[in-house]
Amino acid sequence: MSIIATENIAKIYNMGETEVRALDGVTFRIEPGEMTAMIGASGSGKTTLLSILGCLDRSSSGHYFLDGRDVSNLHKDDLARVRNRQIGFVFQNFNLLPRMTALENVEVPLLYGGWSNAKDRSFEALKRVGLANRAKHEPNQLSGGQRQRLALARALVTEPSIILADEPTGNLDSRTSEEILDLFAELNATGVTLLVVTHEHMVAEKCRRTLQLRDGRIVSDSRNGDRQKMEAEAD
Amino acid sequence: MLFWTTVKVAFRSLTANKLRSILTAVGVIIGVASVIAVSGVGAGAQIAITGDIKSMGTNLLLIRPGQRDYRGISAGTRQTMTLKDAEELLKLPMVEMVAPEVVSPAQVKYMNNNTRTTVSGTVVTYFAVRSQEIGLGRSFTEGEVNSLARVAVLGPQTAERLFGAEDPLGKSIKINGVSFRVVGVTKPKGDMGFFNPDDEVFIPLLVAMRQLFGFTSLHWINCTIYDGADIHEAEKAVVALLRKCHRLQEGEDNDFFVRNMSDAIDTLSSVTGAVTLLLMTVAGISLIVGGIGIMNIMLVSVTERTREIGVRKALGARDRDIMRQFLLEALALSLTGGLIGIAFGLSVIVGFNQFFTQFHAVTDPASVPLAFSVSAAVGVFFGWYPASKASRLDPIEALRYE
Fold first, then answer.
1. Residue B352 to residue B346: CA distance in whole angstroms
2. How high does pLDDT run on average in chain A?
3. How far apart are CA B124 and CA B203, in angstroms?
4. Pairing relation of β-strands B95-110 and B178-186?
5. Which of A55-64, B38-47, B193-202 has the lowest mean pLDDT?
6. Three-state DSSP class for B226?
């Protein structure tokens, strides 16, 4: 069963007289264990799509199945529960909570979900991203790379169906970006499904599959192996 | 688990802006402190005032002659109240003791010391009727009253003014030039405001009436009723009797006034109660202002932390989780303010009692939990709107907020 399956998703904003189609019939699937990049110029609709996939927003029409369940028309509170249980977010600007330690930051989704032994789980998650020795540090005492690792630990801790990363390396230098992407690949190897929204080709190259968005539609869906093969053939 | 973490987070975000939080709480601190202090001082004043009156005896009826008026213009006191009235009153079954009295200001002199005070001509029972205890020496006797002996009992202030440290007993004083022998001094009772029993000279009734001032009628009849008798019933009986004695026709106004002390207590209590209520209202208004301060700061806080709210929602917080977080924060502010205010108010009461001796402010034990719950209510009431505003934020817009 696909983790994500969308059918003809559209998102229409009414700007007074004019109608803006941010998404215009998006249909695709993501299978368990995939690490997919989504690229597209700004205004292509990738942020809108990510919001809908992350259950932060609802589509105007079409259907969105998460783990086989149609979540297109759920109530606010149910969407919150879906975000809590099935989705992990990694943001460009980390979005860690200030005045809370690394461990407490990781605990937040567990507390909202009413999990037991939140501390132990959180510590495990910190270990997975290599931050076990930073558990008592507050975000502003961490480097950029460490902050993004921490954000990743927070996304992982609830064992979600998929982790949605929005420009995860956008605020990092290239060496740290590399590190984070390696960590993504490492986690993917252990079975974590990832969708990375990016405009950097270096990031897309690390993913095995690339979806390209333009004007609210998916215009290409390529396996990186294919592209390398294509490029090789072109040579 | 989530609850305690939320409480912890609330306190942390308050301590992150210490000065701001303190300034915000000041409104509630002042409000709560003044409510506690005002109610404490008010209750103390009430106890003191009613205590003073009770010390005269609650089973006391005071009768004085009515005002004469001529076409609506007051023309002095009527002279219809006589010793005969007093004798008749004593025959009423409910009446225990009767003490007729005349009063007049007079010049009192001992050696070179001079004072102007109130001289009260009365009988032996007066001291019992007015709960006036003798501190030094004795009161005058029935024999002395009947034989028109020139003896005097002094109020402690008068004694102090005339004799200073000297022992007044057995000394001779002059009242309006007539010599009297001091036989006793009363115990201090405290100034009652409208009269001062400590600055008075008591002499036998008939001496005052016939020899000193030449009065033919009484100024007061003090009488007590038996314990357990209804004071209002007694008052009615007294009125009926006096009307009969004075041969007043049906429809004619009383030519005397009767005042009973339990009504006086009620009146005074309601006056001090009203004053206290007024001051409490002012204090309550400062609580409301404090609450508005909390609301204001919470609105600022919600705006500042829009992105945090977005993140929390992305991580699975429901609207009500966000609502609870901000309500708890407002509550933490107002309750902290409330607790400091309670401490502050209580120390004002302690300080008041250090500096003022007229009466003691008291702490109503109910006022502490009351102030606590009022500040909680202020937090919830004024925190509600900002919290609900926070909870209704759209997660996407909140996440994008810079």
1. 10
2. 91
3. 10
4. unpaired
5. B193-202
6. coil
- Flag if B2 and A54 touch (Cβ within 8 Å): no
CB contact under 8 A, B316 and A80: yes
The whole-angstrom separation of Cα B153 and Cα B169 is 9
Chain B positions touching A91 (Cβ under 8 A) are: 311, 399
Task: Mention every residue, 6+ apart, whose C-beta is less than 8 A from residue B57.
Answer: B129, B130, B131, B224, B261
Q: How far from chain centre, in Å, is Cα A55?
A: 12
Instruction: Spell out the domains of chain A, with CATH numbers in brackets.
Output: 4-234 (3.40.50.300)
* Average pLDDT of the residues in A99-124: 93
Region B110-134 average pLDDT: 91
Asked if residue B393 lies in contact with residue B306, where contact means CB atoms within 8 angstroms, the answer is yes
Say if B396 is an interface residue toward chain A (CB within 8 Å). Answer: yes
B-proximal residues of A, 78-107, CB under 8 Å: 80-81, 83-85, 89, 91, 95, 97-100, 104, 107
pLDDT grade, residue A235 (50/70/90)?
low
Q: Residue A142 corresponds to which tokens in the numbers above? A: 């961490």
Write out the two tokens for B233: 């019933």
3-state secondary structure B132-191: CCEEEECCCCHHHHHCCCCEEEECHHHHHHHHCCCCCCCCEEEECCEEEEEEEEECCCCC
**CA–CA separation, A115 and A119 (whole Å):** 10
Q: Average pLDDT, whole number, for chain B?
A: 89
Nearest to B57 by CA among B269, B360, B260: B260
Q: Which of residues 312-331 of B touch A (CB under 8 A)?
A: 312-319, 321
Secondary structure class of B106 (helix, strand, coil): strand
CA torsion sign, B302 to B304 to B307 to B312? negative
**Residue-level pLDDT at B79:** 81
Considering only CB atoms, A109 lies closest to which of B12, B308, B316, namely: B316
- Separation CA B335–CA B372 (nearest Å): 7
Per DSSP, the residues of A163-180 read EEEESTTTTS-HHHHHHH
Q: Is-above-0.90 flag for pTM?
A: no
Q: Is A42 on the interface with B (CB under 8 A)?
A: no
Q: How far are the Cα atoms of A184, B48, B192, B264, B369 from residue B272, in angstroms, in the given order?
A: 76, 11, 15, 12, 23
pLDDT at B306 over 80: yes
Confidence class for position A119, pLDDT limits 50, 70, 90:
very high
The confidence score (pLDDT) of residue A232 equals: 54
Q: Which of B2, B12, B396 sits opposite A111 (nearest CB)?
A: B2
Nearest-CA distance A218 → chain B (Å): 22
Query: What residue type is assigned to position B296 of the chain?
Result: N
Contact B314 A107 (CB under 8 A): no
Q: How far apart are the C-alpha atoms of A70 and A67, rounded to whole Å?
A: 8
Task: Give the pLDDT of residue A134.
Answer: 94
Q: Is the dihedral of CA B198, B204, B209, B213 positive or negative?
A: negative
Query: Is the predicted pLDDT of residue B191 greater than 80, yes or no?
Result: no
pLDDT of residue A228 exceeding 80: no
SS3 A227: helix
